[in-house]
Design a protein that fits this description.
This protein is of the alpha/beta class and 202 residues long. It has one domain: Vaccinia Virus protein VP39 (Rossmann fold, 3-Layer(aba) Sandwich). Helix content is 32%, strand content 23%. The protein has 6 helices and 7 strands; from the N terminus they run H-E-H-E-H-E-H-E-H-E-H-E-E. It has a 7-stranded mixed β-sheet with strand order 3-2-1-4-5-7-6, sandwiched between helices. The longest helix has 14 residues. The site of S-adenosylmethionine has 21 residues, from helix 2 and strand 2.
């Protein structure tokens, strides 16, 4: 049926909603970051969005995640516009060339563990997620956007989601617009999407 099922709106998936938001901001030819590469869905989306003139930097601490992502990017023939780092996202400001500092169009985070991976105890943690978020805001251009999907269902997930929410709450409103999306009428724990826009006048 054209347009898909009407009882499953696109915003039911937070990752899809994040893509729609990034699409509205990230321009072809720009540089973007996938801070949690995982299976590479967001990396592929970003690579397709920036196009052949743009570039994507991706971070993950698991070689398994990078291998899966590399295969996905190669299958779509977009791997040449992506640089993958086997490194924590808290190092993104050191890894990304200085020429791009303050010029990124978008940074995407998708917290938690690698879906389908062999090690579910390898999760993102607030001690490194919060410094990475600060680095991401520094690296964004004015008008750029940061998206973060957080999950509360796995051990450690709720505390991390809470820490990120508190971080977003404290962002100075004259420099950033921070929004949080969550379901009103669904069972908890539900994922949530945090979106931060870096204001042009910041
Ligand atoms: C939910 S998955 C990401 C899913 C991914 N966005 C996708 O499209 O498939 C979270 C990923 O974060 C990774 N991770 C954990 N700690 C990290 C860190 N400090 N820096 C970067 N990635 C990390 C995990 O290895 C895991 O692959």
């Amino acid at each position: 049926m054209p347009g898909g099922s009407t009882d499953r709106p696109f915003f039911l998936e937070w990752t899809t909603l994040a893509h729609r938001i990034v699409e509205a901001v990230l321009r072809p030819g720009e540089v973007a970051v996938d801070a949690t590469v995982g299976n590479g869905h967001d990396t592929l989306f970003l690579a397709q969005r920036v196009g052949p003139e743009g570039h994507v930097y991706g971070f993950d601490v698991q070689a398994e995640a990078l291998a899966r992502t590399r295969a996905r990017l190669e299958a779509a023939a977009v791997h040449e516009r992506v640089t993958l780092f086997l490194a924590g996202h808290e190092h993104m400001a050191e890894k990304i060339p200085r020429a791009w500092h303050g010029r990124l169009g978008a940074v995407m985070f998708n917290l938690g563990y690698l879906p389908g991976g062999t090690n579910r105890t390898c999760i993102t943690r607030p001690e490194t997620t919060l410094p990475a978020l600060e680095a991401a805001l520094y690296l964004l251009r004015p008008g750029g956007v940061l998206t973060l999907v957080a999950y509360r269902g796995h051990p450690g997930g709720a505390a991390e989601a809470e820490a990120v929410q508190q971080w977003a709450t404290r962002l100075p409103p004259d420099r950033y617009v921070a929004a949080r999306y969550t379901f009103c009428n669904r069972q908890r724990p539900t994922p949530e999407l945090i979106v931060v826009h870096k204001m042009v006048s910041a």
